Predict the structure.
Amino acid sequence: MKQSQRAVFVTGGAYGIGRATAQCFSSQGYAVTIADIDESRGKMLESQLRKSGGNALFIRTDVCDEANVTESLAQAITEWGQLDVLVNNAGIELYRRTDESTSEDWGGVIDTNLRGPFLCTKYAFTALCETKGSIINIASVQALACEPNTAAYATAKAGLLALTRAAALDFAPFQVRVNAICPGAIQTGMMESYLATQSDPKSILSSFAGSIPLGRVGEPDDIAWVVYFLTTDAAAYITGATIVVDGGLLARLAI
Ligand code: NAP
């Protein structure tokens, strides 16, 4: 590996938005760590990126497990010699009415979607200081406006926006930038799981598209390239920001 090659660590990097992000950074010459619980998809992506001439490493990582997070980050930093970008992307979704959610439901979603990004941020910080790197948190439009049955998810994502601002302030003296992206409806594994619970997935998908001003559901690449942009010199003055990438979904007053 070239000593100067920049390195990115993508949680949930094996599938959906994380996979597109890993592919995007690899195409831009980054060494990529795919940190995910899905071993088979992670290894498949590692091999695909290597075949295209990139440096890539899959490390099985559960962002809920503090020891696992520290070990994975240490392994990635040892492998690539540096860390320039952390993408806190791993997340799970749960549709359940507030009063019907159990404390385990609540704990599981908060653990993955909020405590996980905190742990990765905490343990990546020292390495990011050395490169004046940056962190991108993948939140959701649900952090800003909710559907019914999203209490735990929306709360975790709103918390992630607060973590973004707080960490941006803490890390600004070290020139480490922290930003968040709020994706709208993006066609990924998460969306596939949701559609699988619906009786008519095709019509749900076309009604989603109809409710989005740009007239289509988003693709993982729509998010990946904004993640990449936030790490470039063009975004050098952006920190603590929340960027909504939703095809105009939140701009429309639904009355
Ligand atoms: P996805 O297709 O389900 O992919 C998420 C990946 O993260 C999967 O490989 C998943 O593995 C992995 N993962 C789950 N829990 C993990 C953990 N504890 N540690 C490490 N990896 C874990 O999801 P996505 O739609 O790309 O979502 C990515 C992010 O975007 C999430 O934070 C999500 O909340 C956010 N987002 C998505 C949408 C959307 O419409 N898709 C909209 C707004 C925000 P398994 O498949 O084995 O669980």
